[in-house]
Amino acid sequence: MHEQLQGVDLSSIEQAKTAVRYNAENDVTWQYHVLAKQLYGWTDVFRDRFLDPIARVDRQGRLPRPVIGFDRDDVRTLAYYILGKNAYGIDDSIVLNELNLERPIYSLLETVLHEQVHLWQQRFGEHPVKRNYHNQEFIQKCESLGLHPFPIIGFHWKPADGAFEQLLKEHLISKPESELVFPVTKGQKRNWWEHDREKGKSTLILYQCSCGQHVRVGKQEWPGATCHACGDSYQKVERRRK
């Protein structure tokens, strides 16, 4: 366990996290209720299958479960893991960027597992970090699970395969269609699901719903996509020529 947590009674933290999860999974008035419940379930699957599958005598207890939140951030950010406590004094927080939720579930789950590997490293790893950084231990753990992040920056340069892909196949979730996979060349600072950007401008297609929510995706046509907040369909925003 991470040295700063040794000898600390974590029972109250775990109780608080359980309460947060219960509320997320049962509050049907929350716009992210359905998605949060789905992602929480997958964090259990990832823990049991990948991150803490076998009881070990040299550890007290199992890998803690995370809490999941949603917030707006830079459009280039998919999610982040909070080192230490969040604003409410709770550890092990994974926050997904609201601007990047309209992605294939394969990509969302790849992101969740990436952030959960941070949790594993901070609690059970031999080289936990003191700032948001993707060191060699983190990269090696991700690669062992089929995830492919760049060192330091953490962007994934190709869709996950290996053990991750096999697990999702067992749950009838396939890798995204080829039109949603954009090759990343060495040195590029972007994820595989994003179009390349030229001169700082996004080449993703902008969509908007009636409540004003904006989403950029890599599809010219996006039928059936609805906003989590208002339930209305997204409409493509046509660019005006100058």
Topology overview:
Layout: H1 11-26, H2 33-51, E1 67-71, E2 79-82, E3 93-97, H3 105-124, H4 136-145, H5 162-170, E4 205-208, E5 214-217, E6 235-236
Parallel strand pairs: 1-3
Antiparallel strand pairs: 2-3, 4-5, 4-6
Helix pairs in contact: 1-2, 2-3, 3-4
Describe what this molecule looks like in 3D:
Strands 1-3-2 form a three-stranded mixed β-sheet. The chain has a three-stranded antiparallel β-sheet with strand order 5-4-6, with no helix packed on it. Helix content is 31%, strand content 10%. Strand 4 and strand 5 form a beta hairpin. It has one domain (3-180). The protein is an alpha+beta fold and 242 residues long.
Which tags fit this structure?
single chain; 242 residues; alpha+beta; 3-stranded mixed beta sheet; 3-stranded antiparallel beta sheet; 5 helices; disordered N terminus
What would you call the structural class?
alpha+beta
- Note the beta-strand portion: 5-15%
- Overall pLDDT metric: 85
Strand ordering within the main sheet: 1-3-2
Q: Based on DSSP secondary structure assignment, what is the total number of beta strands?
A: 6
Shape: globular
Kindly provide the radius of gyration, computed on alpha-carbon positions and rounded to a whole number of angstroms: 19 Å
